[in-house]
Design a protein that fits this description.
By secondary structure, the chain is α+β, with helices and mostly antiparallel strands. The chain is built from two helices and nine strands. It has one domain: HesB-like domain (Hypothetical Protein Aq_1857, Chain: A), CATH 2.60.300. Helices cover 17% and strands 42% of the residues. The strands form two sheets. Strands 4-5-2-3-9-8 form a six-stranded mixed sheet.
Length: 117
């Protein structure tokens, strides 16, 4: 994947997990288009938080990233906050789930769910 123009990179491990979750989600079966939407929203302890979820609609202003059979959608405002970020899937002693490694973050809270820029 060419990361020079992409706001973020989806790791291979994250792509495998996204595909697995899509296959397991009965509400997504039969949909022609399913993508992972990554967004930055206001809130959380530090001011911003990440929102990851499935979307069946692409908007005209979405950034679109394709990696390992997964489509990722990012709105233009979020793309600015996410530039250079990596979305990974972690499965270890501290828990499991998606993690966003954002080089633009100047701080985060103890829970790891929110950040500041």
């Amino acid at each position: 994947m060419d990361t020079s123009t992409s706001p973020l990179t989806l790791t291979d491990k994250a792509a495998v997990e996204v595909r697995s979750l899509i296959e397991q989600d009965d509400s997504l079966q039969g949909e022609e288009f399913v993508a992972l939407r990554v967004a930055v929203t206001g809130g959380g302890c530090s001011g911003f938080q990440y929102a990851l979820g499935f979307d069946t609609e692409r908007h005209d202003d979405d950034e679109v990233i394709e990696h390992e059979g997964v489509t990722v959608l990012i709105d233009t405002v979020s793309a600015g906050y996410l530039q250079g970020s990596i979305v990974d899937y972690e499965d270890g002693l501290n828990g499991r789930g998606f993690a966003v490694k954002n080089p633009n973050s100047t701080g985060s809270c103890g829970c790891g769910q929110s950040f500041s820029c």
